[in-house]
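Hi C.,

You asked whether I'd gotten around to modeling the 304-residue construct. I have! Everything is below, sequence then structure, no commentary in between.
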Amino acid sequence: MRRRAVVVILAEVLCAIALGAQGASGPMTMPYSRTTLVPTAYSDSLAEFAARVHPMVEAFRDQSTAVAAGYRRVGMDFPSMGEHWLNTSLLFLNRFDIAKPAMLSYATIEGRPVLTGVVYALLLKPGELPPPVPGGRGMWHDHSGTLDAESALPVHHGAKSDTSAMRFVVLHAWVGIPNPAGLFEADNWALPYARVGVPLPAPVSISAARALSLLSGAKAYYVALAEAEGAARDAVAPALDSGARLAAPIAERMRVSGSSAPADVAALEAAWRTALNSIALVSGTSVAARLNGGTMDASPAHAH
């Protein structure tokens, strides 16, 4: 029965995601080969956790090794998460083992799959709490709401956990590529910058990141969100294509200059805002808000 419950809840979680999401002491910088990302130094406790996970990064940096170990891709490619690769055998164990994450996350960068992090997943019984991790148990995020509600959340953390019901909890650990928002934050808006090879601004502009994501295959994700809200594909695709056309020369200028000038970041934000406004006019503000994390506010939100 518990195995079946894991399968059923995982299926719902993946639907929601598809429509919505050596030893060391002292600060540690996450490994990454590109110079376009600003290294992220984590606190001592987070660095210790990351150091324990680091062998996983080395073991599965080659995606073919992950496939041989039983990991398979599930769901869509997320602008701020990349792809999820699931090992069902480890999922069914329903045990928190740092060395054995149920999922791996990859993103295509420079034409090849790059391991961006690991993902732990557990099914909790009513009243059961997730295991403690640096920063507290709140670093785990629940998937216990409706599919429509969860897929439109602007962030995965923040909602109060309902411990009275059986729920599925997930913990992302960005040990392969830095996440400026934090090691365990589910969304990593540095990914769209890395994918198109442009320098990361500080702070990270999420609106600019959304515009850049249109250049790295995120159109399918946004179309799926719009269709889940009742919009027609043909109604939103042209606006997304227009946003990509506006973003392309800006991204190229940033690659050539090797910098993220404030004017260029602002221009990317404007490109995303233009696409969003066009979608709102044709398909309604609720559809546009769904694509923007649940809000129509397309001001330059930041991930710190």
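If it helps when you're writing up: The chain is about 40% helix and 15% strand.

Thanks,
B.
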